[in-house]
Amino acid sequence: MDRINENILRELSADGRISNxxxxxxxxxxxxxxxxxxxxxxxxxxxxxxxxxxxxxxxxRDFIAYVAVGLNGHTxxxxxxxxxxxxxxxxxxxxxxxxxxxxxxxxxxxxxxxSYKAFHMDRLGTLSQVNTLTTYVVMGSPKxxxx
Length: 147
Description:
alpha+beta, 2 domains, Arc Repressor Mutant, subunit A, 4-stranded antiparallel sheet
């Protein structure tokens, strides 16, 4: 990974729809050399894909919370059951297995506090694997590299 590839990745992270000509110009390469580098970054798995940045408010999902989840067991089966259940929940946009006092950190997006309360009580809180839930409500995101 050299400086040029890092610049390519930075530019693509900021605008995944940038044309190859504009990208080449920004990173100081010819269009053909730039395209070869991007293709190699894709082939090698450094670039896994491209995504659209969704306006959460326009989608009616402006309430964001991070939820720390402690499980009632530490077996592989308990974790796999929890992960399967969470994967089926549209409200959960991210699920991270973490170290520390709890096992998982979830990013949850819903319409409002009432919707979150229903999700918390009726869906997440009813999972048999869940022992503790601690919610952190996002009040603002001054830096969010996801877009």
